[in-house]
Write a structure and sequence with these properties.
binds zinc ion; Cytidine Deaminase, domain 2; alpha/beta; 39% helix; 306 residues; 11 helices; five-stranded mixed beta sheet
């Protein structure tokens, strides 16, 4: 029976909602480490000049390493079942003059290409998936922003296990929840389980959501500073989420990810979700090491040669 049958008489509200994902404190801690890493990388490669370099952006952070805008400040990270970080990616819409170069979809295509080589992040040889359709079935994706229809679709086709998102995007209509509800238990082409920042008790999730609401209110009322001032003096107010992600407030929250990562105090250092997986202590070491790699060897996305 198709899942559609059971949804015929349900409300839209039922379709967009999901039961709360119950995680142990040990599992939350583990996911908080990866989330901190992702925020730290986002801060490191933050770019803010959304409408070009010749304008004034009163709300942006100052003295960024690079101001040229390559894409929105949205990043994603893939983690395998043992706990190793596979790779990260950013939104690169501007670089490619395209509205579909999103972090998660770029990342999934990247990870598929990485599976075409023999590499140690892959599962043990004896339980290697046989088909490309299942290669990512134990992969988790972390993303700074709730996924769109495209990325939900690509992660679903890629058989990604779950997606942890660290800011809500009301503009995407909870599409991740909807597709999960429609495909749940089908056994094939099943959407990744959406897990929000609140379900892993990641405090920066609330901070980012709250700061965006404030930004929207301020920009819509046009009280206070505009988002951008053009050379002719024209001011532009905008309440878009990608503009918010260029502001000092957003940057400072992402930067707290690095503080968290560097000062992480583990309560469950020895926790392993399965006997072959890394412990939370090893995950923290992996993430600190990945941050050093991503910020020294990498560029704003890997394979680092955009
Ligand atoms: Zn997307």
């Amino acid at each position: 029976m198709s899942n559609l049958d059971q949804w015929k008489n349900k409300t839209v509200e039922e379709l967009i909602n999901r039961p709360k994902v119950e995680l142990s404190p040990q599992e939350m801690e583990r996911r908080q480490i990866y989330s901190s890493l992702l925020f730290a990388i986002t801060a490191y490669y933050f770019n803010g000049n959304k409408y070009g370099d010749n304008n004034n952006y009163p709300l942006n952070p100052k003295n960024l390493k690079s101001d040229s805008y390559l894409g929105h400040n949205i990043a994603a990270l893939a983690v395998n079942k043992h706990g190793e970080v596979i790779d990260f990616e950013f939104n690169h819409n501007r670089l490619f003059s395209s509205s579909v170069e999103h972090a998660e979809s770029r990342l999934i295509r990247r990870v598929f290409s990485l599976t075409q080589v023999h590499n140690s992040w892959k599962d043990d040889a004896q339980d290697l998936p046989k088909k490309y359709g299942n290669l990512l079935s134990e992969v988790s994706v972390y993303t700074t922003l709730e996924s769109c229809t495209q990325c939900t679709g690509i992660m679903t086709l890629g058989d990604v296990k779950n997606v942890i998102y660290l800011q809500d995007d009301a503009g995407m209509y909870h599409i991740g929840n909807i597709v999960k509800n429609l495909t749940d238990g089908q056994g094939f082409i099943e959407a990744p389980l959406p897990i929000s920042g609140i379900e892993i008790e990641f405090d920066l999730y609330d901070e980012l959501n709250d700061a965006f609401i404030q930004f929207k209110t301020q920009q819509r009322s046009k009280e206070g500073l505009p988002f951008v001032v053009f050379p002719n003096g024209e001011e532009k107010y905008t309440s878009s989420i990608t503009s918010f992600l260029c502001t000092k407030e957003a940057y400072n929250i992402f930067k707290k990810g690095l503080d968290k990562l560097e000062g992480f105090e583990l309560n469950y250092a020895d926790f392993q979700p399965n006997e072959k997986a890394m412990s939370n202590k090893e995950v923290l070491e992996e993430c600190v090491s990945f941050y050093a790699y991503a910020t020294s060897m990498g560029k704003r996305g890997t394979p680092h040669r955009m």
